[in-house]
Amino acid sequence: MKIGLYFGTFNPIHIGHLIIANHMVENSDLDEIWMVVTPHNPFKKKSSLLDNHHRLELVYKATEAYDKIKPSDIEFKLPQPNYTVHTLAHISDMYKDKEFCLIMGEDNLKSLHKWKNYETILEHHNIYVYPRIAEGKIDSQFDNHPKITKVAAPIVQISSTMIRNGIKDNKNMKPLLTNEVWQYIDEMNFYRK
Ligand SMILES: Nc1ncnc2c1ncn2[C@@H]1O[C@H](COP(=O)(O)OP(=O)(O)OP(=O)(O)O)[C@@H](O)[C@H]1O
Ligand SMILES: O=C(O)c1ccc[n+]([C@@H]2O[C@H](COP(=O)([O-])O)[C@@H](O)[C@H]2O)c1
């Protein structure tokens, strides 16, 4: 079984993430997508983060109706900040019968050469890349790389930052989230201040 790992902070998960996950699983050889909720991205400050379990709950609510998309809390028990190379080693060891690939936007591909042991990641895993509008250039070593496959997924210009800021400013952000996710955020008063 081939699993696509879609890593993210998901603070909160929005329809942009879901569109990508669904597109990838329906238009590639991947059997499932696991949305891996990251406690602490080594490149981001942790301060404005909703608790891990709340972010996981939101991913659970967003993906409940999708058979091939599943939430994962595998990084919760691993040392922080979360280096993807360590998570991949751990998960591959846990599920020896499965093949794990990475799903990544072009924005993340632009910084991949700065990730811890990125050569090891590429040695053991395929990366499926979808287009994203972002500044900067992709390192030329990743051009036509045998382990990197580009997938022509739609571009959706939504970010979690946009949603958090909108909620704080009392704007209606409902169309950018699933109903279940919006209801939970609203009930719990998340992101209001
Ligand atoms: N609209 C989108 N379309 C496609 N990919 C996205 C979109 N938003 C985020 N991603 C990608 O999904 C992964 C997880 O996203 P992340 O949790 O960082 O969301 P974000 O919206 O970029 O968050 P933030 O605004 O808080 O930085 C990252 O690899 C990110 O590049
Ligand atoms: O391993 C690394 O060096 C590394 C550097 C930057 C980001 N990552 C991972 O990339 C994933 C995407 O993060 P984010 O915050 O953009 O959603 C998340 O799981 C991070 O831990 C990993």
UniProtKB/TrEMBL annotation:
Q: Matching CDD domains, A to Z?
A: NMNAT
Pathway(s) the chain acts in: Cofactor biosynthesis; NAD(+) biosynthesis; deamido-NAD(+) from nicotinate D-ribonucleotide: step 1/1
Q: Matching Pfam families, A to Z? A: CTP_transf_like
Q: Which domain of life is it from?
A: Bacteria
Q: Give EC number(s), comma-separated.
A: 2.7.7.18
Q: Which GO terms describe its molecular function?
A: nicotinate-nucleotide adenylyltransferase activity
Q: Which reaction does it catalyse?
A: nicotinate beta-D-ribonucleotide + ATP + H(+) = deamido-NAD(+) + diphosphate
Q: Which UniProt keywords apply?
A: ATP-binding, NAD, Nucleotide-binding, Nucleotidyltransferase, Pyridine nucleotide biosynthesis, Transferase
Where is each Cytidyltransferase-like domain found?
Answer: 5-165
What InterPro entries is this protein classified in?
Cyt_trans-like, NadD/NMNAT, Rossmann-like_a/b/a_fold
The residues the entry assigns to the signal sequence are: none
**Role of this protein:** Catalyzes the reversible adenylation of nicotinate mononucleotide (NaMN) to nicotinic acid adenine dinucleotide (NaAD).
NCBIfam families this protein is in? Answer: cyt_tran_rel (TIGR00125), nicotinate (nicotinamide) nucleotide adenylyltransferase (TIGR00482)
Q: Which family does it belong to?
A: Belongs to the NadD family.
- Name of protein: Probable nicotinate-nucleotide adenylyltransferase
Query: What gene does this protein come from?
Result: nadD
